[in-house]
Amino acid sequence: MSAKVEELFSISGRAVAITGAAGVIYSAISKALAENGANVALLDILGDKVTGLADEIRSAGGTAIGIECNVLDTDSIRAALDRTVAEFGGCDVLINGAGGNRKGATVPPDGKFTDVPAEELDKVFALNYRGTFLPAQIFCEYFAKQGRGVVINTSSMSALAPLTNVGAYSNAKAAVTNFTRWLAVQVKVDYPDADIRVNEIAPGFLVTTQNKQLLYEEDGKTLTRRGRSIIANTPIGRFGEPDELVGALILLMSDAGSFIHGITFPIDGGFSIYSGVGPLDEKK
Prior knowledge:
Layout: H1 5-8, E1 15-19, H2 24-35, E2 39-44, H3 47-59, E3 63-68, H4 74-88, E4 93-95, H5 118-146, E5 148-154, H6 157-160, H7 167-190, E6 195-203, H8 212-215, H9 225-232, H10 246-253, E7 264-267, H11 279-282
Parallel strand pairs: 1-2, 1-4, 2-3, 4-5, 5-6, 6-7
């Protein structure tokens, strides 16, 4: 039976757990999802920040709780899931937003990739890959018992087209993309009777606290050489905003996306499909 468009895309009343919710991108997304009726559980190792964010969302009329959670600790993840279920009566969606790069894992301006310490490489891989795998593992076990659930991971343009100097981050996000595709099949092997869907978004270039120094000079207004290169290779011609990720997330977590499974959804202003040769380049 067909449903109206607003019903298909409705996320009203859905319980959504979001890791990395204290960050620039997912704090904005958490607010937007709450504004659209979702009950959001904000998970982050920065407990004070997500508690404050939850207060802000509730003050605006939304439903939210802040939970201190270490995505590299299974006991912490289970405790966060248990509290989400206790507060909201269940959990429908896991959004794995925790991740990011580290300055120490980036090739220094006057150095080479051989200068990157192994321990920094390990930390980036742990946060991005293990910090996605473990929550998915624990939440999928719950989703299987419940009979349904949605997992949405967070990849990156650097997983699709590796970027210079941030090898650890690019490689870790490529691992997340591979994991997403693997998990989409594995949940159907392990839990054939459960309706569990797994997808991921791959954001293009948004300005965050982690990458601002790579995109802008110290004045905060003038683009660096890297920033200019990104804009020159983005057909839309600008950086993205966190709110521009919301539509894709709503599609993937709502009934409108009920037959979407195992995909990487680029939200990148066209960056991933431009070869770097042609009219865009000639206009510069």
